[in-house]
Every structure is written in structure tokens, then in C-alpha cells.
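Can you give me the bound-state structure? Components:
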Amino acid sequence: MKKVTCYLLSILLLLSLVGSIFGCTSSGTVEPLQPKPRLKVATTTSLYDTGLWGYLEPMFEKQYNVELDILYAGTGIALEFGRRGDVDVITVHDKAAEEKFVADGYGIERVPFAYNYFLVVGPAADPAGIKDLKPEEAFKKLMTTAKEKFISRGDNSGTHSKEKTIWKNAGFDYEIVRKSSAWYVEAGQGMGPTLLMASEKGAYTLTDMGTYLSYKSKLELVPIVDHGGTLLNVYSVIAVNPAKVPGVKIDEANNLITFLTSPEIQNLIGDYGVKEYGLQLFTPSTGAEPKQ
Amino acid sequence: MTEIWQGLIKAIQLIVSLDPEVMEIAGRSLIISVASCLLASVFCLPLGGLIHFQRFPGKRTLISLIQTFYSIPTVVVGLLVFVLLSRAGPLGGLNLLYTPAAMIFGQMVLVVPILLGLTVSALSSVDKAIPDTARSLGASSLQIAVVVLKEARFAVMAAIILAFGRAISEVGLALMVGGNIRGFTRVMTTAISLETAKGDLELSLALGIILILIALIINIILNRIQQR
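Here's the bound-state model for the whole set.
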């Protein structure tokens, strides 16, 4: 009996020791004292999957002496986190939904800070024959004649919302599209996993430029449709309104907006990934709406 | 196949070289799950004793109910805890959502049924002759309880270890109430889920191997205890 207890205790002790050495950052619960304030930001998956947030996070934390907690989710969920007051600030890309968020009083102001373009990617052989069509025409062809597999995000994200807009512009009711048949697949996942799924299945999907470029080496997908006015993709940052949602850390949230729109960080956003991918992932937009 | 082998080799390199990220995530997993199981044990063991030793109407139903919750899906617990801790929820003022504390709380909820139920059955499996003998020798109720608890100690320990196994291996709850925040609430299971989705298999494999090693250690301990 004693032996077992000793054995057990020593293992537990060892494990927690290992933990306390390496896991000191988790001490939010172990030590109640937290010297640094924490700011919670909910971000669209594309800004997270490209690694942009991972790149900017330490700079912001150092400059403002704050711990930044980044939650990644589709734009729809990120906005819901804001409405529930579970985050202080959000970075998303769905203009209509963002304007509603601000109009409903949940957000203070929509501040665009970067943009790029959406594109339809698919297998190089292009079995549906939609290469270089306009996005609306490409979708029409997929729906009416080609019936090649198309993977949709299906998660109310900004990309999903853009997809719905294109279906609408092409003259289709989205509810009918999604129920149409086996060729239309709803992944319900972030942009990266959706791209991987499309690549595995040899299917088409709508993606933002940044995530596509950062995943390109893992994919057997090429750009199929990459021009057309509807494909503009604007990222903005919105502070949650403390007047509507109590408990929001508005000062820290405003710091993040100042940080993202500062000339120095705007330059870094513009240069992010250029060396690695040979193309610009994000075009900085200095706090203003980019022209189409 | 080569991809898997290369991934495995890199994963083992990550473990052997004590890669800081792998160690940090593994350490955090252990702290959170050990904490949740110990905290839950502190009140589950006495409560389990109370249920066993007291006679009250609905006792059998209560035990059945507890046993039903052994297999409660972790995402359901996650949802419950999320609704409770979200700032719009009843405990929102504590500001606990997306912190390790929320994960510990959630895992406690998850393992309470196992700890309670297995404590009760551990105590029930003690030979009836033991409390009877103690009583005949003039022991008080408290003394009888202590004697029975002592007899059941190995089974109770096994219950705690099983609870720990459930806590450390779950992913749904950790993702929902922890948010998988790098350097704060990212644990082994949520990291595996994210890295696999990102297509970076090495880190996933390394953490997966560590999880299996922990399961192996737990099994060895369980076996040793049960051989007594």
C-alpha cells in the first residue's frame, strides 16, 4: 500500500513539476495575481491560418504590455462572441454583417485595415471548365451543367457570406443551392481545413488569397477564377461597444486598433509573407475603405 | 507512407529534444487535468461516502442517474459551462470564459459522475462482514466509515485515475470553454486538432505520442493497484 501511494504521489508530483516549469503561462489559475491585463480578440480564421496574427501578437504584447488572447472562428461566430461580450475586439471580413453589428450598437466603428481578393480554386485539369469566367458565371455553370464537387465553408464565415453573395448575384436562391445534391459539400470548418478537404477530394472552393497562398504547398489546387468586382475581401477591426456590452476593455481594444492602423504595422502587414510566397497576402488599407 | 514515417521521426525528435512548445502544451494539459481531478476528488469522495452510508428514498435512482452521466458527451458539458460562464450568462461576471480556470471547472463537471459513482461502487464492494465486525466491536458510525474507506482505498484510487484519463483526453470541452489560445489555454488535444487542420502533422504526432504514453502510465498504475 505504502509503495503504491509513494509511486502515485511521486508521479503526480513529477507531472505537476514538469508542468510548472514549462506551463508557467497557464498559471492564470495557479496564481490569482495577474500583472498584465488580458485583451481578448476574436479573429476570422483566415487572419489566423495565414499566421498573420501569430506574427503581430508578440509585437502588440510588447508595445502595450498586455496579454493578447486570440480566438479564431468564422466571422459569424466572431461577431457572436462580440455580442455576448466574450471578447473585447474583433477582426473580421464581412462588410454587411459588420455594418449590422455596428448599427445594432454592439460595435463602435468599423475600421478597415487590410484587403485582398477572394478566388475560386480547383484542380488544375478544371473538369467543370470554368477557368477565367466571371465568378457569377462560374457558379452558374457549376450549378446548372458541371455539377463538379464544390466545398463550401458552411460556417457563416465572411468567406461563406461572400459565397452566398455570389450565388445571389448569379440568380440562385442559396437555400436551393445548398440542398441541390451531392456535388455541393458543406465543410463547416475554417478556411485552411476546407482547402485541405477540397484538395483531397479534387473539388472547387472559394478562398481568400492569404490562406490559399500560405497553404499552397500542401494543396493540389490552382487558381481558377481570380478576377471580378465581387471578389474584393476587406478585413476590418471593430471594438465592442462597452455602452451596449458591459465589461469590455475599451482602452486596450482601442490600442489594438491604433496598432493595426499605425504606418509601421501597416507596412509589416503589406510585407507579410511576400518573401515566403512571392506574392502579397494582404494589402494595407490604412483605416479606409479600399476602392473596388 | 513516407509522410507518416517522416512525421513520426520528427515527432520523436520534438519529444526527445524537449521542444519548448511541446513541453509547454503537455505541461499545461497535465496541470489542468490533475487540478480538475484533485479538486473534484476533494468533494466527490466524501459525498460518495455519504451516499453509500446514508439511507434515503431515491438512493438507487440517484446512483443510476450518476452512472448515466459517466458517458455524458464532453461537448454537452462544454456547452453547459459555456452558457454559464459567458459574459451574458449567470456566472459571466467572473470573467472566466477562455481561461484555464474555465477548463478546470469544465473538467470537474465532466469527472464528477465518474468519481461519485465509482466511489459508491468501491465502497459497496467492501465485504459486508467488515462493517458488521467493526460494529460488533463497538465502533461508532464514523469509525465504521473510516474502516470501510480504508478497505476500498485501491478502488477509489483507480476511480481518480480513470477520471484523470477522461479529463486529459477530452477535446470538445477544452476547445469550447478554453478557446485554444496559444500560450494560455492550448492543451494537447486542442493543439492536435488545430495542427492537423493546419496540415502540420509533426507537432500533432508528437503530442499524440505523449498522450498515449500518459495513457500507458495510467494503465500500468491501474494494473498495479488492481493486483493488490
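A couple of observations. Chain A has 13 helices and ten strands. Residues 36-116+233-284 of chain A form a domain with the D-Maltodextrin-Binding Protein; domain 2 fold (CATH 3.40.190.10).
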